[in-house]
Specification:
By secondary structure, this protein is α+β, with helices and mostly antiparallel strands. The chain has three helices and eleven strands. The protein is globular and about 45 Å long.
């Protein structure tokens, strides 16, 4: 009886070892065969880090505006446990960079305010925003569509989503009106935004 039990245990052990080793090999082979997620090229990351910081996260790059120029969309994401369930990315700073020859130039900056090279984007909050929530999509005909919402800024700031996209007529990123139909121009200086009423 002992011999039968011993033989049975040896057989079960052999099967377990055999099954275990055969299941490990295909898994490791399939993992090696899976394509890796596309990594951010070093030059793209370096340009984004130069504009924001070494804590930068590159969200997209390529011909984002469909204007024939290479661009980078990058943010300084806020990594707090309570933000893990929030849809989109919550950030403190965002930049869109465009390649100009061998250099990269900033064509949109969103920190406390949204700005392009011509000034502060019209239709955006005049109060300083410390946290934004971003959702974006790459539209095949309109290019990069960015949707910004002030995130938990208190009762004095409206929780309104602002769309920003490339305006091919003026060749820069601008905010859209509340109906997402017309572009809104810029305010050249913050003083104009905060001008007291008479």
């Amino acid at each position: 009886m002992r011999t039968a039990i011993l033989i049975g245990l040896v057989c079960v052990s052999a099967c377990i070892v055999g099954c275990d080793s055969s299941s490990k090999n295909p898994a490791s082979e399939s993992a090696a065969q899976k394509p890796k997620a596309s990594a951010v090229p070093d030059d793209i990351f370096a340009a984004a880090a130069g504009a924001l910081s070494s804590e930068v996260e590159v969200l997209a790059w390529g011909d984002l505006a469909l204007n024939g120029h290479q661009e980078i969309l990058a943010i300084n994401r806020l990594n707090k446990p309570e933000l893990a369930a929030v849809s989109g990315a919550v950030f403190s700073r965002l930049a869109i960079l465009e390649r100009d020859g061998e250099q990269w130039k900033e064509i949109l900056l969103c920190d406390e305010h949204m700005k392009n090279p011509n000034g502060f984007l019209g239709g955006t909050p005049t109060a300083g925003i410390s946290m934004w929530r971003l959702q974006f999509e790459k539209n095949p005909t309109k290019g990069l569509l960015l949707f910004f919402t002030p995130y938990k800024q208190g009762p004095t700031v409206r929780d309104q989503t602002i769309e920003v996209r490339w305006n091919s007529e003026v060749k820069r990123y601008q905010a859209m009106d509340a109906n997402y139909e017309n572009f809104i121009g810029e305010n050249p200086a913050l003083e104009d935004v905060h001008r007291p009423l008479k």
